[in-house]
Amino acid sequence: xxxxxxxxxxxxxxxxxxxxxxxxxxxxxxxxxxxxxxxxxxxxxxxxxxxxxxxxxxxxxxxxxxxxxxxxxxxxxxxxxxxxxxxxxxxxxxxxxxxxxxxxxxxxxxxxxxxxxxxxxxxxxxxxxxxxxxxxxxxxxxxxxxxxxxxxxxxxxxxxxxxxxxxxxxxxxxxxxxxxxxxxxxxxxxxxxxxxxxxxxxxxxxxxxxxxxxxxxxxxxxxxxxxxxxxxxxxxxxxxxxxxxxxxxxxxxxxxxxxxxxxxxxxxxxxxxxxxxxxxxxxxxxxxxxxxxxxxxxxxxxxxxxxxxxxxxxxxxxxxxxxxxxxxxxxxxxxxxxxxxxxxxxxxxxxxxxxxxxxxxxxxxxxxxxxxxxxxxxxxxxxxxxxxxxxxxxxxxxxxxxxxxxxxxxxxxxxxxxxxxxxxxxxxxxxxxxxxxxxxxxxxxxxxxxxxxxxxxxxxxxxxxxxx
Length: 468
Known about the structure:
The chain is α+β, with helices and mostly antiparallel strands. It contains twelve helices and 15 strands. The chain folds into two domains: 2-188, Chloramphenicol Acetyltransferase, CATH 3.30.559.10; 196-396 and 405-466, Chloramphenicol Acetyltransferase. It has a six-stranded mixed sheet, sandwiched between helices. Strands 8-15-14-11-9-10 form a six-stranded mixed sheet, sandwiched between helices. The protein is globular, with a radius of gyration of 22 Å.
């Protein structure tokens, strides 16, 4: 039993009926080898044998009466693996379209908070014989980087499955604390936390002093800032419904492109996002006369909990110019804007959010989030940012599950109130996988966004080859 960190708890407090703060992973595996199967029994066996390597999977969040303090994680005494696993046969003809439709439906519903905060589906019925696994995890459990690391615990390094080493000690469930115990322990924890508030505030103010100086100088140079983003059709209050688009391109395409132009893969992602968004908006009306603002999560592994799970992220705001640039000019502009934004993130400090969430009153944050969403306030002020763009490093080697090779791993992050699009990318072995999730009421064709994103990457790659 342990107290949830302020950062992890913030994802529970901020969640609303229309803003589901969860991440999804869509894993596509090659058809199993002849004589082998990969279905619900095989997936269940793998998870049963490796649950001790996935401690978050048996932990349930217990909220505190009146929101006195952050929730507790307990080893769920009612945990039963079958409650979290489901088998589905996709509708004919069993193509990528059917997979995307199913994933959108899964993303449109929040995780059940009465159990450990995750679910998993195994899908068959695909025309090519492949198998897909869709994993949904609440963001309170882990961020995208920790989710990618989780793959190492589930998969083997060769087609020959290897039984995991058994745990050193058997798993022991906790008793659900009584109301009185929750209150008294939380009051003590709250009092101890309040004693640290002066130091936390001092740390925050110290960081903000340098941040303000950096921000003022950067704003004078035209850098991105919160509440300076233009309004677009996808910057409005959220509905409950989600749609997704899944794509992949060879990782070598990204590597060759960034090497040719002295950029980073993240720069290529930002430039492709800018091109895709410009094309999407231009097809529906006037293009905004100033850059879009992307919120880009920045991982801070040094602050991760001992378990390896939880959240350890901050974020930077990056301007995405919508000018009708030459693709290479757009890439260079993305590189320059990202470098400027990183300077501001360094000035703020990677642990600023952790300090801020550490002493914010739980009840206040939860009530404020629901009030903001319920009154549709996101439509009454300039967007904090237009969308989220995230780049997650995945496993650089081939991985296998019950003998089946992992072909692609598509990541999907949450859409935020007032920001109805999230573009997340992940490199897995030799593939570069793109997951785009959007609010179904704010984006009329998420597939077009995905197609334009991939087309922008391929255009840059062709220019890279021509520049050799």
